[in-house]
What does this fold into?
Amino acid sequence: MGEQFELTISLNALEHLGINLYSNVPSVLSEIVANAWDADAETVTVDWNRVEDRIIISDDGTGMTSKEVNDRFLRVGHRRRDFQPGLTAKNRKPMGRKGIGKLSLFSIAGTVVVETAKDGEKSAFKMRLDDIREKIGASGGSGTYSPAAVSTDAIDFTHGTRITLTELRHKQTAATTKALRKRVARRFSILGPKHGFHVLVDGQEVTPADRDYYSKVQYLWTYGDQSETELLTSNVQHKTVRKLPDELVRLGFSGWLGTVKESGQLRDEEGENLNRIAIFIRGKMAQEDILSDFSERGVYANYLIGEINVEGLDLYDGQGTVRDDDAATSSRQKLVEDDERYQLLKAFIGEELKNIQNQWGDLRAEAGAQKAMDIPAVKAWMDGLKAPVRKRAQKWLGKLNRIEMDRLDEQKQLIKHAVLGFEFYRLHENLDALDNISDDSLLSVLDIFQELDGLEANLYGQIVQQRIKVIQTLREKVDDNALEKAIQQYLFDHLWLLDPSWERTEGTEIMEKRVLSMFDEVTADLPDDEKKGRLDIGYRKAAGEHVIIELKRPERIVTRSEMLDQSEKYLSGMMRILEQQNNPHETVEIVFVLGKPPREWGNPGGKDRVIQSLVPNKARVVFYDQLLVNAEKAYSDYLEHRGTVDTLGAVIQAIDNYSFDEDTQAAAA
It folds into this structure.
C-alpha cells in the first residue's frame, strides 16, 4: 500500500492521445487485448457488469513488477521494442509500439484500477481522470500524477494483469455481449487455438466466426494461404486464387477480397457498415477501411468486403533494425498515406478491384440468367432462340441480378422486364438488318413482321390485364358503396372503360379551357335539382373524337327531354368551338353515364325511342353497371381468343404464376 506510482503526462497528451482518440468500447478493449498479446497471455477475459456499470479485463500474461509499472505502463510513450526487441518469449510479433494505448482507458472510464503480479510481487493502484486533470492542471498543464496504491489482497493470480474500469461513458456502444464479441473478433486475426490466444467476453469465447460476415460471402478472391478463411466462407459459390507480384510477397501481403449476394448483408444488426476492406498488421486491425480511398462507383463496390494482412507495414523490431518507423499514424487506427509501402499496397488493390469488377459482372450475370431459367417457361423461351441469340439473351437476363431485389414480386417483375426488354432489343436489330436483305430473300421480312405482331400482341395483352385489374378494383369499390367516387376517380382518365378504341387521351389543354368555359354557359341556367343531380362533367379527346361525359348520380332518374336539351347545348357549343378552330368536320360524342334508366325507358318502345332521339345530338347512354360488365367482357374475350399467337404472353404469365423455392423466399424475406 505504500508503493509510489507516478504518471508523467501533459493535459494535451491526455486529451488528444487518450480521451479524444478513441470513440467506443471495442476500440479501447482492442488496445488492452493487444497489450495482453504482447505480454504472452494465452487467455484474456472481458466481463461487463452492466448493472454495476463496470468492465473487468484480465489476462494470464507475464504481468508487471512495481518497477515495470512505473517504467513501462505509466510511462507515456514507452517504446516497448527499444527495450524488448524481437519476438516475445512465445515467438510472437509484438503489436505495441508507441506506448500510448493505455491512455485509451480514459476515453471510456473515469476511474481505472490496475492489479498485476509477476515473480511473486503484486502491485495495485487506482487512477481517476478528474484527479489527473486537477493535478496536472495545477502544475501548468504538464507534470506528474501519483496514482493511489490500493490493496493487493484481491489479487488471486501469480502472473498477469487485471484492469477494472468504472464510471463508464459511451454506455450505448456495444450494449450486448454478441455485439462486443463481433467487434473484438473483427479487430484481431490471431484468435483461437491456432495462435494460442483466447479472448472471452462475458464467459463466451470470441472466434473468427463471430465476425459474422464469412457466411455471407458469395464470390471469393484469395491471396496467399487462406485455408482458414476458406473453411469459414462455407457459402462461397466461386473462388479465385490470385497470384501476388514479388514486391507484395516481400511485403508480407496476404488476405482475401469478397462480394456478398445482397448489398444489404453488409449492414449488421447494430448498424455497423461492413462494406469495407480492413488492413491488419501483426494480427491487429491497423486501418478499418482502405476501400474508401478509392472512387469506386460501380454497382459491384456496394457488395465488397475484405481482410488484408501486410506484415511489411511494420518492420520495426528495436533499435538498429533496417527501418525505424512503421506505416501507422499515432492513433494506431490508420496508415500513413504517403508511405511508399502504403502506395504500393493501394496501387495493387486498385488493380484487383478492376479485375473483381469485371469478373463479378460475369459471375452475377451467369447466376442471374440461371435464376431466371429456373422458371420452366423462361427456359423454354430461351431454348427456342437461335444459338447466337440465346447467348446474348442469357447475358441480358443476367444483368437483372445486379439490381437489388428484396421482395419476390420485385424479382419476378425484373425477370419479366428483362424478357420484354430483350425482345425489344432483338427486334430492333432485326429492323436494322432490313437494309441488307436482298431481293431473293425478301420472304424473310415476313418473319420479322410476325415477330412484331407477336410482341405487339403481348404488350397489348399486358395492358389488357392491367385494365381488367382496374375493372375489378372498381367492382370492389361498387361493392363498398363507393361507386360515385370510384367512377369519378377513374373514368375521365380511363376512357377505354367507355370504349376500348379510346386507348389514351390526347393533349388538349387549350381546347379543354374553351370547353370548360362553354360548360359554364350551358349549365348556368339549369334548375337547382338538375345541377344537384349531376355528379360531374368532363371533356376529353381520344382517337380523334371530342368526347363529353356527364356523370349522373346513380340514384337520379333523368328524362329524355332533359338529356335532349343538355346534349343539344353541348353539341352546339362544341361545334361553335370547332368552327372557330376551322375543324367543323371533327367528330363529337356525348355520353350520359346513368345509374338508373331514363323515365321513359320502361314505356312500350320507350328504350328505342330514347336511344334514337339522342342520335342526332351525337349522344348515347351508358349505365354504371354495364360500364364494368361490358369492358371486362371485351377485354376478357380478347385474352381468351388470342390463343397461342402470343407465345411471349404465356411466358410472362408463367413468370407471374411461378413460386421460387423456399430457400429463395427465405433469403428474399
In short: Residues 444-479 form the longest helix (36 residues). The CA atoms of residues 290 and 463 lie 50 Å apart. The chain has 21 helices and 20 strands. Residues 662-669 have pLDDT under 50 and may be disordered.
